[in-house]
Design brief:
Chain lengths: 410, 89
Amino acid sequence: MKEKISNQIRGCLRLRLTGAAPERFFNLCRTNRIEVWDLQCKKSGYEFSVGLKDFYRIRPYVRKAGVRVRIAGRRGLPFFLQRNRRRKGYAAGILVFFGILFFMSRFLWAISVTGNYTISDDSFLHYLDSQEIRYGILKHKVDCDALEENIRSSFPEIIWVSARISGTQLLIRVKENDGVPIKEHEEPEPSDLVADMPGTVTRMIVRQGRPQVRIGDQVETGQILVSGRIPIYDDSEKLVKENQVCADADIYARTFSGYQEKLSKFRTVRAYSGRERQGLGLRLGPVDFVWMLPWDTEYNWQTMVTERQLCLFDDFYFPVWISRIQKKEYILYEQFLTNEEVLAKKENIHQEKLQNFLKKGVPIIENNVKIQDKGSYYEIQGEFVLEQKIGTRQRILYEPPEPVAENENQ
Amino acid sequence: MFEKVRMAAAEELKLPRDVVAGDVLVNFVGRNSVTVENYRGILIYDDSRIRLQASRCKIHISGKNLHIDYYSHDAMKISGQIVSLEFVD
């Protein structure tokens, strides 16, 4: 490919060779390192290609081998320029084309963000917009190093970022922190561990604090599971003081979870009439042009637009978007769900809820689902018996000392 | 005598023969393309046969619509419908 382009730029000739000893001529070319390619034996003689420079070198070897060489074709830029030397408009057009190309290459016409999962492309583009980086700005105004620094400081979840300009495209590659988010170190405050849902305690491991429940106990929401208050008694079992700690424990309980969902008896069906419209769109920067036949608006049309930005090579983007528009006419109507469809939908909803628990790693001991006909709709009721960790921290409120003690201190 | 010593040394040192002795290298890609390296010259060429001179032998290639894609001082690429390739002393 590279050689072909080079030959086109330097110019090459297609030669036809006749005579008694063509092989001798080819060997002479080989010995004298004259590049010959695309050698073919035809009825009219041998045809081959040589570079324009080498063509001037073959004359002595032609004479020596006793062959005749005729030019069968000329290819490449030198011949093109020679042929079109009088066409001034043509040359001016080419110059203007390259001028526009050069002018357009000074601006930024595409922004590509890769590696982002939690931060959407739109959020990124909004952020870049706030940093005065948008489509159509001059490339030299983009300071990639400063942009990298700003992105890192504005998005703490991004642990690595690279920004560079390639052609007319700004390429931003990011790597997000996919591990457990690092929590800031918190000073443990004196707190109790209270039940955040009702259940029956099945397992418990207490690391700090005073347990208030036992395995098998039924607990209610808000009930203290592990107390952060640790009383200190003296030998006569008299309360000397009370230490307050941050209760820390893993309490597992058998809990119940349920849901109720309404399911419509109908489903909306989109019926295509078979009428289709096709059109083309052209966007030049902020200006849109659409070429499409007029259509009646009595029915609904489903529109699908496939848009492509004009790009030269891999990264030389232009502010020109070409789109193909396809429209399909459809009518909406409602259809009764069949029994099989109702059961399938019920199963889907239940499985979705089930998967939510499984994703969290909560063991499911029992699960039930039932469906009831409520006249205009169905009601799906599901129940799960789970074994999960319960308990949330509740700060121990500061209790002011008793007035008597205050007086004693004074 | 010198040739024999050179070949023995090449064998012992596990050096490629095409480098040491200038042996011809023939590389087929399917039956429609062959590259010949280390040849010395073209003896005959027409669209049904190509004869090349190598350092120790001659190579006869026969086929249909034989066409030399390129040739340089060391290598030649031939394409076409190749029927046979023969080494002749």
